[in-house]
Amino acid sequence: MTARAAILGATGVLGRHVLPRLVERGHEVRAIVRRDGEVDVMRRIGIDAAIGDILDPVALPSAIKGCTVALHLATTVPRPGQSVDWSANDRIRREGTANLIAACKQAGIRRYVQQSLAFLVGGTDGLVDETAPLLPPNEVTASAIDMEHHVIESGLDWTILRDGALYGPRTGRDEHWRELARAGQLRMPGSGSDYISLIHVADLAEAFALAAEHAPPHTILSIVDDKPVTYRELLTYLAHQENGLDPTPGELSHLPSFRIDNSRAKRTLRWHPYYRSYRSGFA
Length: 283
What we know:
The protein is α/β, with parallel strands linked by helices. The chain has helices at residues 15-24, 36-44, 60-64, 87-107, 142-152, 173-182, 201-214, 231-241, 263-269, 278-281; strands at residues 4-8, 28-33, 48-51, 69-72, 111-117, 157-163, 165-167, 187-189, 195-196, 198-200, 219-223, 229-230, 248-251. The protein is built from ten helices and 13 strands.
């Protein structure tokens, strides 16, 4: 069945990948953007667009009116190497999510797909999945936990996709690590023994397109690649690729150790990551 999808965060790192995938599948897409210039850009590449802001509860319902599914991809995450300020992103997760849920109800939209974080669960006890207990909140995850609660209690036909550490074009993660590696300044969080579950932005976008089509309601899915990896293994590989020095320990990290199983997402969405591990993703 053809969907009419409203995309919040359409011009962001993930939204840029989700839009064309939905169009390629024959769906109608409406990019919700904040400026007239962005409307012009979208329409020039054949995508409908409307002015709206997830933090503007008055204008949002009319911007998404007529759509059948809403995808909340809006974020303002500090990029690698930048100063860390989570306040704007926290507001999008809490206030913005509440606004979008209310707008969906007003516009008669039942299907709702939410981006969240795979590392809300994890720890040091091996591979875990979406059913694992949430880790204690920190400055990065507290607003994401609140966001998920808003969605779960919304009464909509929601799906939450928890993505791993995002890398690939425009994310900044690859470029930042490689730049540090070339300069001999690459450092590992702690001793490097913590695990990270990665996901390439193209694979994450594919999962969101599939979720918009046929994800069962009231489902949380982890969108990560097939091979959780220690920081030591990953960053040493990147350092060697760039002919740099081995990474040194001692870097602080905002992420817990997390080794996430993607089996449920594979079964439910009939999805498989093209970049199965960091080796193909960081080729």
